[in-house]
Amino acid sequence: MNIYIQKIWKFLTVDMWHYTEGDDLRIPPLLLNVLKAVAITVRGIFNQKLTVRASALTYSTLLAVVPLFAIIFAIARGFGLDDLVEQQITMALGDNTEVVQTVLGFVNSYLEQTRNGIIIGVGIVLLLWTVFNLVNNIEVTFNNIWMVKKDRSPSRMFIDYLALLLVMPLLILFSGGLSVFISTLADQAESYLLLGPLAKFFVKLTPFALTWLMFTGLYIFIPNTKVKFKNALVAGILAGSAYQLFQYLYISGQIWVSRYNAIYGSFAALPLFLLWMQVAWTICLIGVELTYASQNLTKFDFEKETRLVSRRYSDFVSLLILSMVAHRFEEGEAPYTALELSKEGKIPIRLTQQSINELMEMNLLHEKLSEDNESTYLPSVDISKLTVAKVLDARVRRGKENFKVDKEMRFQKQWEALMAAYEEGYENASHVLVKDLYHGQES
Q: Which residues of 11-30 are buried (b: 16+ CB within 10 A; e: fewer)?
């Protein structure tokens, strides 16, 4: 049994990360990808400290919940549909009556003051800033999980966030209208033998489907990177289902709620509301991690080996990539993407991207966006003058050397021995003993 468990553990931690496309797999590729995605997600939950990030978003949401609902209700009242929005928000908050009444009371006061002209100028700016700050915190959290270092520009941030605030009430109205429409059809179809059960099934499925679409939309549009629909959809369905399950447990746990009421009294609604938001954000962020994992499976192949790659092999990969890029450039063909270089050279994608970044730092490659907005790579120097010696010399000189070590006088021997080894080859340095290079401290 111990040997069997060790084999399984070795497969999960080492062997399955060495399988690449075209290899003879022992298990179905789909199952292998699922195992990889789950492993990456679980590791990300701990490494990214998702519970801490969920707590931060819970705090931001608590600050922005009243201004956010105020904007939603202001737009909804313009259409005369504020009752429908109130019904949808009540359902979203898990039928927590005290919280709903408190929040809606604050919202009505907020809007009443605004209508009377008391809150103008600074008040409106503060309202928008609070909501924008929440959306920005969500984007930063998503970008951190996706390891996206470049944020949206201020102009694009303003346009995207404003569009999100305008679209959100419309989506709530649409979901409410859709729920009413399907419920009406279900009532009309009850008299039919076959349509009745089917209609009831769709009524029960509607909240799930709307939640799936909400999570999928968040996973696609919030991160400042290209997210594939299929990966976001799978994560959205799983996260949405988990959210609906939590809602069911939360609503049906009346005994648990009554215990909170006995302890906190009239304040019971606050810790329950905070707990609801904390769990909801945790589920959402796990879905983000799952989306990232499923879309970037190949980036984790040979991950341990990539971190420990030798200097010699790193030089070899750089020469390989440069030769492939230079050859395609000479033939006048479309430039390589990182994924194409990885597949053709059978180089782990993480090592490929690492080598590309180093070559760009050395000004030997530069990036060019394709028509599909993908990063492709071209030579930055004349390929007729790009020799192996020039590449290796650039790799040796890469980085900083302006430190206080005295290589001109005191440690001149060590520096000259190293330069001779680089210029004349290691064989000429084989007779030089390292212990003879140092003569103790200066007198």
A: eeeeebbebbeeeeeeeeee
